[in-house]
Structures are given as C-alpha cells and as structure tokens.
Specification:
It is built from no helices and 11 strands. It is an all-beta fold. Helices cover about 0% and strands about 50% of the residues.
Length: about 120
Amino acid sequence: QVQLVESGGGLVQAGGSLTLSCVTSGRTVDNFAMGWFRQAPGKKREFVAGLPWNSGNTTYADSVKGRFTISRDSAKNTVYLQMNSLSPEDTAVYYCAASTFLSRTPGRYDYWGQGTQVTVSS
C-alpha cells in the first residue's frame, strides 16, 4: 500500500514563502510521476506542478510558473513544493499525488495524500 503524507502548510502573509513536503511510503518515490494539486473552497481541484518519474522536465500551471518549484529527494522519499511570492489567490488545500505517468488531470492519479492547508493573508 502506498501512502503519501503532506506537511508544511500554514498561514503566511502575501509575498511570503512556504515549502510543502510529501513523504511517500510503501514504494519509492522514484517509481512514480508526482503531482501537486490544490483545491480552494467551492472550486475544483486543480493541477499546480508535476514531476515525471525519471525526474525529467517539470511542468507547472501558468498561475504558479516562476513562483513555485517542484523537486524530489530520492534518498528521503520526499517530493517538495517550494512556493514563493505567495498571494491570497494561492490559498487552498494542497495535495500531493502519485501516478504512473505525469498528467494534469486529477483522475489519472492513483494515490493521494490527505492535504495540507495553505492560507495567504493580504
């Protein structure tokens, strides 16, 4: 059984930074394409950033490009989302997810974490 556990969320002022972590257990994180998604109240879950299993080209939503960075530490079985220049529009529950192939579609992911809340105050 694969488990994903996110951490690192919290309350931050606009312009600030946070780093989210997603620890994978059950199988090595290298076996998966990893994605970060977010869901704000009343909105659909949306793709934020993705990293293919071979750590090739990362991909980002236009809304976070240049501000967020996804990375992987294989030794720690952990995927990170570094978030800079945060704005209130980034407020959401953030989820990490694992899949065989990288996709921007939530339904393509097999495993999900429980989510971590990020709140950006103005």
